[in-house]
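Section 3.1: Structural characterization of target chains.
Under the original work plan, the team committed to producing a structural model for every single-chain target entering the pipeline before any wet-lab resources were allocated. The record below documents one such target. The sequence was received from the expression subgroup and is listed exactly as submitted; it comprises 144 residues.
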Amino acid sequence: MPTPSMEDYLERIYQLIDEKGYARVSDIAEALAVHPSSVTKMVQKLDANDYLVYEKYRGLVLTSKGRKIGKRLVYRHELLEEFMRIIGVDESRIYKDVEGIEHHLSWEAIDRVGDLVQYFEEEPERVESLRKVQEKNEEAVRDN
């Protein structure tokens, strides 16, 4: 199983390849705001763990194992962002909050969050009902 840092790289590499058709060390460094030398070291680790194939000066390609995990990591991130929106987290905080929790949840917990997102999406009035509860609670806090 990849470390949280490896997951961040795999997620970003998967997204870059999905968007651009390729992922260069410089693209990954820019996307993750790290030095290219750090990317090279991590890419070598990912290569050693069979998540991708890396050839110096030629680029990298995700293995089927790397693609599968990358896709799942992107799904996890997008799902948690949607969950945060549903429960009313301010849009300016969502990315940071998701980055803070995504590596600490089991895949079982992620699946249950997916069930909950589906529950709310199937009937939008459920979200409206949640908003009413939140407003009531915020009102009670202000009154105290």
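The domain at 75-143 is CATH 1.10.60.10 (Diphtheria Toxin Repressor; domain 2).
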